[in-house]
Design brief:
Largest sheet: 3 strands, mixed
InterPro entries: Cyt_P450, Cyt_P450_CS, Cyt_P450_E_grp-I, Cyt_P450_sf, Plant_metabolite_P450s
Radius of gyration: 23 Å
Oligomer: single chain
Shape: globular
Pfam families: p450
Bound molecules: protoporphyrin IX containing FE
Number of helices: 14
Strand content: 5-15%
Membrane topology: Single-pass membrane protein
CATH topology: Cytochrome p450
Distance between the termini: 80 Å
Cofactor: heme
CATH architecture: Orthogonal Bundle
Helix content: 40-55%
CATH superfamily: Cytochrome P450
Number of domains: 1
Strand order of the largest sheet: 1-6-5
Number of strands: 8
Order of helices and strands: HEHHHEHHHHEEHHHEHEHHEE
Organism: Digitaria exilis
Length: about 475
């Protein structure tokens, strides 16, 4: 009897706690009805033709005890979002700075190749090597030089732990049961709070506050770092948008965290998938190697589409099949004209609004657009292929064929930097070595994790063999 009482009380407490947490953290955009859109033409109507209506994201599905609108991706569409986003796009991500970035990229890629060279002839699990190298590059862009080793490795470890914890979350917005969702968010939120606390600890005292005090955490990379730009940035005040204020330390810390995550994790995901495909497709790998080697010998190593068209095609093919961020999500309330436009495509947004999830992976594998969509065939992006001329970010008057960087007002601002990093690392990896399936003949597992980041479920293990000079 006692045991039954205890069980009943515990269950009642869990449900009460879950409801209480939900109430106290309630937000109009949290856990609304979710509509999935996999059709690129409907995505065009929504994200491009009605971009304003599709310009907000729902609140993250997990309640936390703190305001989490400190990042570009979670700020509501409006003046503060505009201020921090344009600080990024006109600052560090500007195309004209690619020349400066090229030097940093080349140094990072060469370090990666050197680190791997002692494993030539062996099987390696690539993920940690690539993660460290891409993180190091993005951190230099974020902070400049001079961050000490210990602080860097705490940041990298925090990012790895966050990534690991996100793998266990299965599309929370798509979990249909109300109770499951409540219990799940109740169980998961302390882990998120824990990560946010760590972001504060790892970034604020050693980096943000130290730089604010003017301590020379060194910035000898020859351009203004992202951190420096954030410390100078003025954003509209919450209560009066006509007055400006500086960002608070925790906001700067969170924006740096977002920059490091956006810059590192998508490139890491894409590089791992690409090497996995190249290891089982030696002809494609050899063709890519020939193109890169040719450019190296001519001294024309610029990673652009014109100089290295096959490299560009290989990266596009990888992003088509495995968009690292699998969904572009919006929270919408719409008027009658938009309802009518979407209604033609049988998408009905309920009067209270909805979360709309554009499924980027489905668009890249749509067999109405792509021939044998599950095949890895970069040639489809070359002359005469169905993907030739495809644009990475959808615009007006153009059919959407794939959307790995999302679309509309909230599309990814890091397209140019992301593509440039991926191409540079990939070119150097393929130039230096040949990547083959592991010596024990183990099959590569092409399954992906079910989570917010579409990484390989089983971290890639490959054999590095030397390239004969040609
Ligand atoms: C291969 C590389 C990358 C891929 C595939 C990628 C993909 C995406 C996707 C799908 C979105 C959501 C877009 C939408 O909702 O329509 C996004 C948003 C975002 N990405 Fe990226 N990304 C990449 C690289 C980067 C880089 C290098 C940065 C910056 C350092 C970055 C920063 C951001 C930010 C700040 C947002 C939120 C934008 C907003 O809400 O206004 N990403 N990214």
């Amino acid at each position: 009897m006692e045991a039954i009482h205890l069980l009943t009380l515990t269950t009642a407490f869990i449900i009460f706690a879950a409801i209480f947490r939900r109430r106290t953290s309630s937000h109009p955009g949290r856990n609304p009805t979710t509509i999935r859109i996999s059709d690129a033409s409907i995505a065009h109507v929504a994200l491009i033709d009605h971009a304003d209506a599709f310009s907000n994201r729902p609140m993250p599905p997990f309640p936390t005890g703190r305001p989490i609108t400190h990042s570009i991706s979670s700020l509501p569409y409006g003046p503060r979002w505009r201020a921090v986003r344009s600080n990024l796009t006109t600052g560090i991500l500007q195309r004209s700075r690619l020349g400066i970035l090229a030097t940093l990229e080349r140094e990072a890629a060469e370090t990666l190749v050197n680190n791997l060279s002692s494993h030539t002839g062996c099987d390696v699990v690539l993920r940690d090597f690539i993660h460290g190298a891409v993180f190091g590059l993005v951190a230099r862009q974020c902070f400049g030089d001079g961050i000490n080793e210990r602080d860097m490795s705490s940041m990298l470890q925090t990012q790895k732990d966050f990534l690991e914890s996100s793998f266990t979350k299965v599309r929370p917005q798509e979990v249909s049961s109300w109770l499951t969702r409540l219990l799940r968010s109740w169980r998961q939120s302390p882990r998120h709070d824990d990560i946010f606390d760590r972001v504060d600890q790892v970034f604020i005292p050693p980096v943000v506050a130290a730089r604010r005090r003017g301590s020379r955490h060194g910035n000898d990379v020859g351009f203004r770092s992202h951190l420096d730009s954030l410390l100078e940035l003025q954003v509209p005040n919450e209560d009066d948008e006509h007055t400006l204020r500086q960002l608070r330390d925790e906001e700067v810390a969170f924006l740096c965290w977002e920059f490091l995550g956006g810059g590192t994790l998508s490139a890491l995901t894409c590089l791992e998938w690409t090497i996995a495909h190249l290891a089982v497709e030696p002809e494609i790998q050899n063709k890519l190697h020939r193109e890169v080697a040719d450019a190296q010998h001519k001294g024309t190593m610029a990673y652009d589409e014109l100089t290295l068209p096959y490299l560009h095609a290989v990266v596009l093919e990888s992003l088509r099949l495995h968009p690292p961020t699998p969904f572009a999500v919006r929270h919408v309330h719409i008027d009658d004209s938009i309802a009518a436009a979407l209604g033609k495509s049988s998408v009905i947004i309920p009067p209270g609004g909805a979360a709309v999830s554009f499924v980027l992976g489905d668009m890249g594998r749509d067999c109405k657009v792509w021939m044998n969509p599950d095949e890895f065939r970069p040639e489809r992006f070359m002359e005469g292929g169905e993907g030739k001329g495809v644009s990475l970010v959808p615009g007006p008057n153009k059919e959407i064929k794939m959307m790995p960087f999302g679309g509309g007002h909230r599309r990814c601002p890091g397209v140019v930097m992301g593509m440039s990093h991926i191409k540079c690392f990939l070119a150097q990896l393929v130039y230096a070595s040949q990547w083959v399936s592991p010596a024990d003949g183990g099959d590569t597992d092409f399954a992906d994790v079910d989570g917010f980041r579409k990484m390989m479920k089983t971290p890639l293990r490959v054999r590095i063999t030397p390239r004969s000079p040609n």
